[in-house]
Design brief:
Chain lengths: ~250, ~280
């Protein structure tokens, strides 16, 4: 099943063309990685998938992006879209409130106020990201007191708590130490049975380790998109080969 | 030579710093030295809790004025905080750039208007309004609260606005990414993150309201009695001093200074809580 169908997508920041004629289909319940050097447009593309680009002034989009069969730039409820498509940011950004309230924020936003139901969601979400045992005794403590790796897993749990279908991860481990990084990677692989995951990463090894498909971007263009194994072993495009062998980037 | 001039400058700076510290110390010493003996003479509980202020009968109970100040300030907070906070939210998150260029200087100007002008505004506009709609003389608790509520707006707006602006954008984005509306993201994610700073703004506003004199004297009615009802007159601590200082002598004069001591203690408490909040916010 195709989760996202992107056709002839072009994106402009003012006069600058940040994405050039992107066409791709993203499979559900797989991990798709976007790689490429800084400024290649991979994060920009990620943000078009839940319309976070709407916040950027002067950002214009042409072409279509379909989630299932619905054009997300058509007449849709953007808040509902963002409920279906969760996002994890580069820098862990738990809200300055308790661990419990962080997780409960999303469900409360969408109208769940029953204490029992919230308790259940909080526990389930924290178990899903494997930090329940670490934090169950301090759910009412500030989330800002957690380590960076814990904070990032909390942010993933917060995204899971609204029961999304897709999780977008924007370089989720770039601010973390190697041990936390490997935990997040394991987590992503656990989650792909239930969610479609799209991850932007600077780290080619990371893409190779965890993703099923990889797309390589350069200067706003999608150069190559293929099974991860294929892309890293027999890249079709010379530029992909140059990048993954470390000739630039 | 250089070392010499450096030392001179050091002394100049040190002197400048000392002047302000000495001023504070002198004020403290003066206030307590001339105010405390009178409190002793009148009796601490008679002074602080006595409910009649009749200098011609040697009755110096300052309690009605304490309550008056507290009520007027509370009223000002009730009116000023919601308006100021919502205005700050508007300025920080919603305001189009063109309008901001008008709004910001207007708020700054509001802060710069002398209090006597506010007093006139209260006297000419708010007093007749209250008189017309609620009866009474119009010079009352409600009028004072409304006027002070307006006067503390600029403090609350500018402190809150800068603190809301200082909240990292990723809280806002994090909330939107969960499917929250813009309003919910601002009020449930951004504002709680700016909570400490906003509290500091409110405390500064309280300080301004409780210390305000001229504007309040003109509209509060000035009856030295326990305030009863929104449309009845009140007298604040500040008003008490300024109204009688001109002709008071002897114990009466000292009792007025003691009133200032009470006011000073209020301000001290407010400033200390402001500092404590700031320390927590900085962490």
């Amino acid at each position: 099943m195709d989760k996202y169908t992107i056709e002839n997508l072009e994106l402009f920041y003012g006069d600058f063309k940040a994405l050039k004629n992107i066409n791709m289909k993203i499979q559900e319940k797989e991990i798709t990685a976007f790689i490429g050097p800084s400024g290649c447009g991979k994060s920009t593309l990620l943000k078009t998938l839940n319309r976070m680009n709407d916040l950027v002034e002067g950002c214009k989009i042409t072409g279509t992006v379909k989630l299932d069969d619905q054009d997300i730039y058509g007449k849709i409820d953007v808040n509902l879209l963002r409920k279906r498509v969760g996002m994890v940011f580069q820098k862990p950004n738990p809200f300055p409130m308790s661990i419990y309230d962080n997780i409960a924020y999303g469900p409360r936003t969408h109208g769940i106020h029953s204490k029992a139901k919230l308790n259940e969601i909080v526990e389930k979400s924290l178990r899903d990201v494997a930090i329940w045992d670490e934090v169950k005794d301090r759910l009412n403590k500030s989330a800002l007191g957690m380590s960076g790796g814990q904070q990032q897993r909390l942010c993933i749990a917060r995204a899971l708590a609204v029961e999304p279908e897709v999780i977008l991860m924007d370089e989720p481990t770039s601010a973390l130490d190697p041990i936390s990084t490997s935990k997040i990677e394991e987590l992503a692989m656990d989650l792909k049975d239930r969610y479609t995951i799209i991850i932007v990463t600077h780290n080619m090894q990371q893409a190779a380790r965890i993703s099923d498909k990889t797309a390589f971007f350069l200067l706003g263009e999608m150069v190559e998109f293929d099974k991860t194994e294929t892309l890293f072993s027999v890249p079709k495009d010379k530029r992909t080969e140059d990048y993954i062998t470390g000739r630039f980037g | 030579m250089r070392k010499y001039s450096e030392n001179i400058m050091k002394i100049v700076f040190l002197t400048a710093a000392c002047v302000s510290i000495i001023a504070v110390i002198l004020i403290c010493v003066f206030l307590f030295a001339s105010g405390v003996p009178a409190i002793k003479e009148i009796g601490v509980s008679d002074f602080l809790l006595g409910d009649s202020w009749k200098p011609n009968q040697d009755l110096y109970g300052v309690f009605p004025m304490i309550i008056g100040s507290v009520y007027v300030t509370a009223g000002a907070i009730l009116i000023g905080v919601p308006i100021g906070l919502l205005c700050a939210v508007f300025m920080a998150r919603y305001c189009p750039k063109g309008l901001y260029k008008v709004l910001k200087p207007a708020v700054d100007l509001l802060a710069g208007i002398p209090s006597i002008v506010y007093g006139f505004f209260g006297l000419m506009v708010i007093v007749p309004l209250v008189q017309g709609s609620l009866g009474g003389s119009g010079k009352c608790l409600l009028t004072s609260s409304v006027l002070l509520g307006i006067m503390i707006l600029p403090t609350i707006i500018s402190v809150s606005e800068s603190n809301i602006r200082a909240v990292p954008e990723y809280y806002y984005e994090g909330s939107l990414a969960l499917g929250a509306t813009r309003e919910r993201s601002i009020f449930r994610a951004v504002l709680p993150a700016a909570k400490m700073g906003i509290m500091a703004g409110i405390i500064l506003g309280i300080g301004r309201a409780i210390g305000e004199t001229m504007a309040v004297v003109m509209v509060c009615g000035n009856q030295a009695i326990m305030p009863d009802g929104l449309t009845n007159g009140v007298r604040t601590l500040t008003a008490n001093i300024v109204l009688e200082m001109g002709y008071a002598s002897g114990l009466h004069r000292e009792a007025l200074i003691s009133t200032a001591v009470v006011l000073f203690v209020f301000i001290l408490i407010i400033n200390l809580s402001f500092m404590a909040l700031k320390r927590r916010a900085d962490r």
